Structure formats: C-alpha cells, structure tokens
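Shipment paperwork, digital attachment
Item: protein structure file
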Amino acid sequence: MISAILLAAGNSGRMGRPKALLLYKKSIFIDHILNSLNIAGCSPVITVLGGQSALILENSSVSRHIYVINKRPEDGMISSIKIGIKHLPVNTEGFLLALVDHPAVTQAVYDDIVKSASENPEQIIIPQYKKRSGHPVYIGRTFFEQLLNANADQTARDIIHLNEEFITCLDIDDPGILKDIDYPEDFQKL
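Attachment content:
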C-alpha cells in the first residue's frame, strides 16, 4: 500500500494569502493535488493542515478526505511530517510526500513515482528533471522511525541524505517538479 502525505500547514506568509486556495487549471492547488494523488492510487491520502485550517476546509474538498491538524506548524515541516506518519495505516509500505505549493506536477509524474515505489517500496525515490531534484518524494517505511525521531532543527532532506545508499533517482521529463510557488511573482509566472 502506497500512501501520501500532503503538507498544507504553512502560514503562506511570503505569498500573503493561503497557497492551498490559489487557482490553478480551473481548480485550487490543494484540490488539484489531492485529485492527482488519488488518481495515482495513493491510499490513504492524509492532508496536514495548520493555522489556516478553517479557511481551507471551508473552501476546498479537503473535508471529504482524511486530514489532521498540526497545532504547532511553527515547529517546521518535520512536525507536520511526523503527524502525517502517525496517521498512516500499519500496512503502509511508504508514502509520497507532496507539498501544496507544487501544483504544476503532472499526473504522469505521480503515476511514475507510485509505479516505481510499488517496485521498490523500501527505497527513497526522488524525481529529477535535468539532474535537479524535485517533488513529490517517496519515502519507504524503513525510514519512518528516523523521521519520527528527527530533532526540531532537522528536515526531511537531512534524513534522506543520511540514507543516500537507499535513494533511487527517477528521471522525469517535467519541469513542474521544480516549481515551488512561494511568492506572488512565482504564482504570476505559473
């Protein structure tokens, strides 16, 4: 079973409004990504929300899916990842770590990562476009404990780099995996 954790707990301070609710291809970021993860066969998809949860729940389809609230999103992305992992079913082989500010990832990318994860469930799978790493990243169950035990100052990237021998790089012909929408000008370019 390949699951997914969609991180949407940030306060979108640089954007000035909730990134989860920005419009992309006739849908909002969060709904677009949830739909893609579900089509790819991720089950369950767990969305981690933060301080803007009421606004996001009111204006998205998130409430029709599994979601959890990070009451301390200021503790960083690793705190949201830990909460998501704690809500995964025991038979989860691994999860796609998806970020709400990466809406340009195509369905084919999600499908390719899930297929690769199904064939290599114990690995860490990182999509790459022209040798540059992007998102979403797949993380096998083997690494859950390390993520759960990570210090507040550590990131998922730190844990991944501690396990480089287990990383599979998946060449992707899609620059969307690199498009991180943080600022209003990023959104305008998108």
